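Reproducibility note. Readers wishing to regenerate the assembly model reported in the main text can use the exact inputs given here. Chain order matters: entities are listed in the order in which they were concatenated for prediction.
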Amino acid sequence: MAKPWATFGVDLHLAPTGPGLRRGLTDALREAVRTGRLAPGTLLPSSRALAADLGIARNTVADAYADLVAEGWLTARQGSGTRVADHAVPRPPARAAGPHRSPGRLPHDLIPGTPDLASFPRAAWLKATRRALNSAPNEALGYGDPRGRPELRTALAAYLARVRGVRTDPERVVVCSGFADGLRLLAEVLHSRGARTLAVEPYGLDVHRDIVERAGLRTAPLPYDDLGTSPPGAGPASPGGTTRDADDAHAVLLNPAHQFPLGGVLRPERRAAVVDWARRTGGLILEDDYDGEFRYDRQPVGALQDLDPDYVVYLGTASKSLAPGLRLGWMVLPPSLLTDVVDQGGGRSVGVLEQLTLAEFLTSGAYDRHVRAARLRYRRRRDALVEALASRAPDVRVTGIAAGLHAVLRLPPGTEESVVRAAAWQGLALHGLSRFRHPRAEVPPLDALVVGYATPPDHAWTGALEALCRALP
Amino acid sequence: MAKPWATFGVDLHLAPTGPGLRRGLTDALREAVRTGRLAPGTLLPSSRALAADLGIARNTVADAYADLVAEGWLTARQGSGTRVADHAVPRPPARAAGPHRSPGRLPHDLIPGTPDLASFPRAAWLKATRRALNSAPNEALGYGDPRGRPELRTALAAYLARVRGVRTDPERVVVCSGFADGLRLLAEVLHSRGARTLAVEPYGLDVHRDIVERAGLRTAPLPYDDLGTSPPGAGPASPGGTTRDADDAHAVLLNPAHQFPLGGVLRPERRAAVVDWARRTGGLILEDDYDGEFRYDRQPVGALQDLDPDYVVYLGTASKSLAPGLRLGWMVLPPSLLTDVVDQGGGRSVGVLEQLTLAEFLTSGAYDRHVRAARLRYRRRRDALVEALASRAPDVRVTGIAAGLHAVLRLPPGTEESVVRAAAWQGLALHGLSRFRHPRAEVPPLDALVVGYATPPDHAWTGALEALCRALP
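Running the prediction on these inputs yields the following structure tokens for the assembly.
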């Protein structure tokens, strides 16, 4: 595991000096520069080459490089690769984007997946906490119903029916600590029932694929076109004419209302086709409705779950509508899955005070008020993005529906990596589309950026947009 | 799966009418009584016989029976078994023990494992929440360090060093949503490293054994005597003279400071022996320090982890010191495990506001104040229990150290089941020791009650103690 490192004489211990590979790699590299083992001006291997040599994900290397550029140990220039800085002395981490940026991050942040945390409704949340604490029965503080508090399950069932068309009663709602927690539980239950393959969309989050694979399932990518993702067995013939792994899947994971990251919506004929597949084969659909409250051009498409609650698990969270740090999520389960998920330990992970606070937040109308305000804020940002690109980067096309917290910016072929690098040089953290691609996806690779326009606080948004425009071709 | 039910003509669908077997069974039985398919006066099979016929845990049946006795559908008389009540009409659930008892519970509750929830410091917790919300940086509300918030890890490292002698820095603390969450993560990591057996004490919680077994490990009971549990390979010869399963274990799970439920303490020579075992074999010790703050006769024994932080994982929670509903726990990990636990998804389950609130609670001294008050309350209860038994049930002996939230009451041989039944008749929920016994434990069975004297609120404690004295032989 050491070829390129031998070149630099870097003593790379990925044994834990901190959590995870990224930190271990960052620490090892920083130490090598600090002690002079990597001399000023040294050209580092490309992130792709180094990742291949170390047998780790390319994103891990790219993130470590970006951290060290931000810290001043390395420099990245478009066209000339990443080098050890000429005067590699430690400097304070960049803090331009706000008073509370964590060290080692770039000053402008358009990484998708996080709402504007500065607009979290602290006062309203505290008020709801006070009410929850004052009215909670003592028994709520004990080990309780593994599905979660009845107050929250009742509030969620009503809210999801009203806003997303979900069909459920509170008995089939299970509170979890976010989508990842719910996905893990479902993958474990599917595995214990004999499932071996979960079909997924060709683009998605690698952390979700990792969770599924740790539970003993493999993920298999489905075909995708303008109508959205095809169900197992129903896409066009695969390029080699062979059977796809996904055709044997027992379950599929979909974002019907707004595909992440591609930004499309699952069209009505495909919605029907995937439910048909589930009924015909006894398959299960996991509906990840991560940003269903945010649509700007029309009423959002209702939950797929409404088509057949016996075959669709609906999953949602407060991570985009409020804040990921709350660790609050929920599942609406078909009756046939409820016992297994609960027996697997489902729902026991979430503190009751947070649950009761969210219930109070929902029933008091504070949740609706916050979502309305956030929807307006993000819609304006998206409009500003589209407008700025039309005038300043006419070669870049915004694709996907007007929804959610991110936009996909299609780039001229072959330019994605250089644009991401140019962005880092502008102090701008963002992700290319390629990092979300399933390793075995059959769709042709696309060059694009996935821009999380909700991520910066209001005061930093204009600067981030400006940096983005400067980085684009 | 239906023999005894056929006798009664009960149509038993354990398919999910609610979460878990217990509820399904309770509902099915209640429905059978309500509709008259189980006639008044019918003698039900013993919980042991029914459990064997259904292939489910005996405790599940016993719990369902107890719920239905409490609801008035069944009656339980000492010596005459459980019968359908003569006038089986629904009556409101018993509520004598407080205004917030959940339906279907017995009025007096001495089930171990829960602190006095009525004494949860709501005002102080709200104050800490307000401070946490006011001072949290925006980035805290995002996806953060998978180990948990640095404020909490720092506060825990200092607290655990001061109070429990744990040796750590904040970098090796991982926040989790309780002991079960931590145990699951550790079991998954151990399994992925090739471990196949976790040695456990001969008495413990079946839910913990279930968690370990779901992760693909088997549990194997260790020998136990007056000095405490022996490490793998070091106990007296097994009765058959054969090798024990536990001798092949890669890890052991122990309660060194206060064995649950037996109530003993791991003596110094055994503490040394188990650490020696770990160093010699590369084994791992999981130290479950669930009630380490509560000792009444002297300073508590410090954490075993202090003997060798490279071989001991220390696990603690706020479930006994504050409330289980908070879902707040922590692990202190050897460096060699940190990366694996984090990569397994460790630490991502706990809401940041709860974490910051606990950090504030610890650093402000509110945690110490609450623990001191709780310690005094529980100590007085334990003293009252010992005194009452000495005068009113001289055949019953209180065993174990003066510590924690529960006491073990040794009963005359052969009487445990009838005493638990008599207790239910007195409206008293409690557990016999046998339900905690590992199915393959080699120690001779003991007749005893495990009395959770911390469980009732103050106003209900005297009534619960009185009911206990009436139920004892």
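We highlight two features of this model. DSSP finds 14 helices and 17 strands in chain A. Chain A has a mean pLDDT of 88.
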